[in-house]
């Protein structure tokens, strides 16, 4: 099934692969999605919706194994402060539901900040705009499609070994 995100890539003549998986409604985490599509969580990027105090709504794509660094996003986006939007605001702002937010094809075109770690992979996996559907696409092509700023906005959690 083609999603709006896939149609946008088609229109830009960007190569991608659509990957479907069975959704676990009880666990919509990027780590779970990564497991289902067979890629490491570092290669499966989640799209988070935030709001800057100066620029308004923006999106950040970070690896499933990382957290969004709000301070780094504020600096990258020219804001003093950035906060996550509430879950109830996500759908009205983007047209997408939790677990299906894509940087492509939202209701309105928001600035997108793609974590620089995306360039370490030949392609990354992002939501196709619907739960159970992922798009595999080269990070540079995604950045071109959404006019993303590539910068360090992810904070990887360090697990200390005992």
From TrEMBL:
Please list the residue ranges annotated as the YbaK/aminoacyl-tRNA synthetase-associated domain: 29-144
Pfam families assigned: tRNA_edit
| Enzyme Commission number(s) of this protein | 4.2.-.-
Alphabetized, the UniProt keywords read:
Lyase, Protein biosynthesis
Keyword Protein biosynthesis attached: yes
A single GO molecular-function term is: lyase activity
Q: Which SUPFAM superfamilies match?
A: YbaK/ProRS associated domain
Q: InterPro entries in the record, alphabetically?
A: Prolyl-tRNA_editing_YbaK/EbsC (IPR004369), YbaK/aa-tRNA-synt-asso_dom_sf (IPR036754), YbaK/aa-tRNA-synth-assoc-dom (IPR007214)
Biological process (GO) annotations held by this record are: translation
CDD domains attached here? YbaK_deacylase
Into which family does the record put it?
Belongs to the prolyl-tRNA editing family. YbaK/EbsC subfamily.
Q: Which NCBIfam families does the UniProt record give?
A: YbaK_EbsC (TIGR00011)
- Name of the protein described by the UniProt record: Cys-tRNA(Pro)/Cys-tRNA(Cys) deacylase
Give the source species: Lucifera butyrica
Q: What is the lineage of its organism?
A: Bacteria, Bacillati, Bacillota, Negativicutes, Veillonellales
